[in-house]
Design goal:
Layout: E1 4-15, H1 54-66, E2 74-75, E3 78-81, E4 91-94, E5 104-106, E6 109-118, E7 122-126, E8 137-141, E9 148-154, H2 161-178, E10 190-200, E11 210-215, H3 218-237, E12 245-249, E13 256-261, E14 271-272, E15 279-280, H4 283-291, H5 297-308, H6 312-319, H7 322-333, H8 338-352, H9 365-376, H10 382-395, H11 399-406, H12 417-428, H13 430-437, H14 444-454, H15 461-472
């Protein structure tokens, strides 16, 4: 049986967070009454002329810089012709052979290009009852038509559904840090198409690709790509051939359905937009974009690793989710040890779930830093720290007060209490004690477990081990 390797490229559409549309002065909106933000220009009426939105150009340059793209000093708009009811002009103003942003990179994935274009209107299919079910009629809301987009096209450098999801997560975090878009996938501000093919492992020849359209969640993207990879492999193993086409993935049923044959560039009959001059990026525009650049997630991860001593993977986990990175830095500022704080944030996420911003939980950064310091100072044990953290998640409050209220303070050897419990553990399990005395440190587990149970997790593991060695004379 042939082993196959997936080859995946992404096309990501980012709605820019400008006040007005790309080529007219109509206000951008989401959820407003349909068809109230329109004008002759965005409706494509005869005689109306487009004018480029300077803020959109500024945002596009910032995106290009963040993706390490080559910024074209002079780029060109083109008309991309197609006939759909959500395109009142019967063409889209886009960029074809000379985009504003050329080759670049984000993480391990190369960027082929990023270019400016205007969005289509919103087409909704309705059933007879007016609900979105058995589509019998369609309605169009032209409010979205003309919204400024940057389309980011990757090279086919992605080789698994998980990697596709991880890349899109990093891109979304990067765009959010730039402030160029709210990147709200539920509102369509970030949409991804995936070009998927498979080839025998070791082959350099790309297989026939299909395109999955408009996947608007990370899970949707990962599941859709996985389903299409499995479909293509099954088709090839049965002796069939993959057809180049555009597909829709239904995340509810898991079904893939064909929408249309895949278009090629010549199908769109591109030609230079006659109503817009070439777009010239001046030195002043470049400098303004560079001055507006914040610290990007990749740079933040590198700083967490080099300055705060975090392992590379843990640094990325925190930096690539902006809310985690912000929470982490706030806790470290409050005095939490950087490495310990990162570990305790992981413990917090396990309790509140990955979809919740820690800043929205009842555990403030100050409280987490206090837990870290209590454990670091051996005022409470790690087990007690976990119990305090669970109580903070449920009720909030001050960690020190919870420790005092619930009697969770560490039992030390200074008052003799811990030494007595250790002695009882050795007397109660002489076989384990003898094995430890003989050098088998694996046998220490039952002894430590006994002490932790007797002290209700209030004893420090390191101190228990020290007392065991001391009392056994090793």
């Amino acid at each position: 049986m042939t082993d196959y390797e997936p080859v995946i490229g992404l096309e990501i559409h980012v709605q820019l967070g400008t006040t007005t549309k790309l080529f007219c002065g109509c206000e951008l909106s989401f959820g407003d009454t349909p068809n109230i933000h329109t004008c002759p220009t965005c409706l494509g009426l005869p005689g109306a002329l487009p004018v480029i939105n300077a803020q959109a150009v500024h945002y596009a340059i910032m995106i290009g810089l963040a993706l390490e793209c080559e910024i074209a000093p002079r780029s060109q708009f083109h008309r991309k012709n197609y006939f759909y009811p959500d395109s009142p002009k019967a063409y889209q103003i886009s960029q074809y052979d000379v985009p504003i942003c050329g080759a670049g990179r984000l993480g391990e994935v190369r960027i082929h290009r990023a270019h400016l274009e205007d969005d289509a209107a919103k087409l909704t299919h309705l059933g007879a009852s007016g609900r979105i079910d058995d589509a019998q009629r369609s309605v169009v809301d032209f409010n979205r038509g003309g919204t400024p987009l940057v389309e980011i096209v990757t090279e086919p450098d992605i080789h698994s559904p998980q990697q596709a999801r991880e890349f899109l997560t990093l891109l979304r975090t990067t765009l959010r840090a730039l402030g160029v878009s709210d990147v709200d996938m539920s509102q369509g501000s970030l949409r991804a198409d995936a070009n998927v093919s498979v080839r025998p492992v070791g082959s350099d020849t790309l297989g026939t690709k299909t395109e999955l359209k408009n996947m608007n969640s990370f899970a949707f993207l990962e599941k859709g790509v996985k389903a299409e990879i499995e479909r293509q492999i099954a088709l090839l193993e049965s002796g069939g051939r993959v057809a180049q086409e555009t597909l829709h993935y239904d995340p509810v049923s898991g079904r893939l359905t064909s929408l249309r044959s895949k278009e090629e560039a010549h199908d769109y009959r591109y030609f230079p937009e006659p109503d817009l001059p070439p777009l010239v990026v001046t030195d002043a525009m470049l400098e303004a974009a560079k001055a507006a650049m914040p610290e990007l997630p990749a740079a933040r991860a590198a700083r967490f690793s080099s300055e705060l001593g975090l392992p590379v993977e843990r640094a990325r986990e925190l930096a690539f989710r902006a809310e985690l990175g912000d929470y982490y830095e706030a806790a470290v500022t409050e005095g939490g040890d950087p490495v310990m704080t990162a570990n305790w944030i992981q413990a917090l996420i396990e309790r509140i779930g990955t979809e919740i911003d820690p800043a929205d939980s009842k555990v403030t950064p100050e409280a987490l830093a206090a837990v870290v310091k209590l454990v670091g100072d051996k005022a409470i044990s790690r087990d007690a720290g976990r119990e305090v953290l669970s109580k903070l998640v449920d009720e909030g409050g001050d960690p020190a007060a919870i420790v005092e209220r619930d009697g969770l303070g560490a039992i030390s050897s200074a008052d003799g209490g811990l030494a007595e419990v250790v002695a009882a553990a050795l007397a109660g399990d002489p076989d384990a004690a003898e094995k430890v005395r003989a050098g088998n440190m694996k046998a220490v587990g039952p002894l430590v477990g006994y002490v932790m149970r007797e002290t209700k997790g209030r004893a420090d593991g390191g101190e228990i081990n020290r007392l065991i060695r001391e009392q056994l004379g090793i």
